[in-house]
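Archive entry: two folds, one per protein. Generate the first.
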Amino acid sequence: MKAKRDHFINLLKDFSSPGVFNPWNDVDAENDISGESPLIRTGHLHAYLTERTGKAKYILMGEAIGYQGGHFSGIAMTSERILLGHMKGKGIGAEDVFTSISPRRTSRESVRPNGFTEPTASIVWGSLLNMGVAPADFVIWNTFAWHPYNPAKGMLSNRKPTDDELASGIPVLKAFLSVFPEAKVIAVGKVAEKELESLAIDCLEVRHPANGGAGKFRQQIGKIVSGK
């Protein structure tokens, strides 16, 4: 699986498209702490995936990276603030994400003193951990791996990936799934479910926790992990 994992990360880093930020290759000139930021994010991702390879029982699949999450952490649905240890009050520790390396911030402290935080990340991580799911038992990713942003609004914005962008990301999505062939795929939200089904990828679907969906998400994911 190491070869498949390394192949996946190489494909991920090689992707480039207008209006899309690649956290593992691109530098956010306005908000990154230095030109080393993509290397830091790649290190985060490598540690995260390595600690779950051969162990993960569930893949939670969202739509795309957002600027408050993976843009700076390098990990889908995972905020920089989690990695910096500022979410322990919500039951989420940096050690839940990975333990083999020390996490580092990649955004400038002047932009967000405690790092960027993403509500969806807090809900997803907090829900699973509070249910007693071991961190290595789940891995989080997106059907479109990178961060699509609105060029008119700048890097600190989000938008939906286009159909062409989704199509261009399919090889990387399939490469990711090949790293975790035994894991049960769970689509987080209708957009992810539609994309997975279009590729004939079997999945369960749960409500996306955004926009008032946190309660339904917890209820549905709870039934899946409990086997009910």
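Generate the second and append.
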Amino acid sequence: MLRIVLFVLTNLAVMALLTIVVKLTGIDAYAYRRGGLDLQSLLVLSAVLGMGGSFISLAMSKWMAKMSVGARVITQPANATEAWLVDTVRRHADKAGIGMPEVAIYEAPEMNAFATGMSKNSSLVAVSTGLLQSMDREQVDAVLGHEISHVANGDMVTMALLQGVLNTFVIFLARVIGTIADRALSGNRDNGGGGLAYFAIVMVLQVVLGALASLIVMAFSRWREFRADAGGARLAGRGAMISALERLAGNRGENTLPKAFAAFGISGEGGIARLFMSHPPLAERIAALRAAA
């Protein structure tokens, strides 16, 4: 879940920054004046900002992940466990046909791991000390296979493309609705290109529409977890993958996010809460693996 939360938060921050930049440079004023006449130009502007924001977030994802958890990249294994970890990641990467990722460990009591990066050949796989201490090597092997599958499937790049398309429509709709609302509030007078009221309306709409768009990102994220589980089963064995998920299910009470992001974790498995989940319930993932067997 960590990599998804970081990506979404970074994307929202970049989008807010780009909105401020286009306001200060006068680009938004130009879009305001032409918004009711030239929607095509506004759509092009939205696409440039939306796709740009998404791929800036993707480019920053590896650095953000390292910084948020204090991950230490293994450049030279210091012990047998680190050597085994690097060798296992290399074996899975070779089998999956991708470049060797950076391998990192971070201090955390919970069982967790993540993979991120700009491309299949420039990625990072990190595991918590809690995972290494609480799982046997067969289970850790499966978790690493799962993370390598995320990289091999190009999940982060696909998510960036999806987020970019959604960003485009969020920016476009926020400005169209903002223009209509601002002109309605001003008695349909042209105030010279979008004042503070227009800017405030656009910012609020971007937050609201961005939150709704994140539901689509979360739905894709849940789907890709099933696919990564299947990949982990191929790389490390179905029994090992099921065993690792069962071990995680038995540890449900622990928080799997850093404290700074704990508020974004949703433990509910049904109802409206499910729409905000980045991962499907573990029971469903285990059942899918067993059904596939």
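Annotation attached to the second fold: The chain is about 70% helix and 5% strand. The two ends are 26 Å apart (CA to CA).
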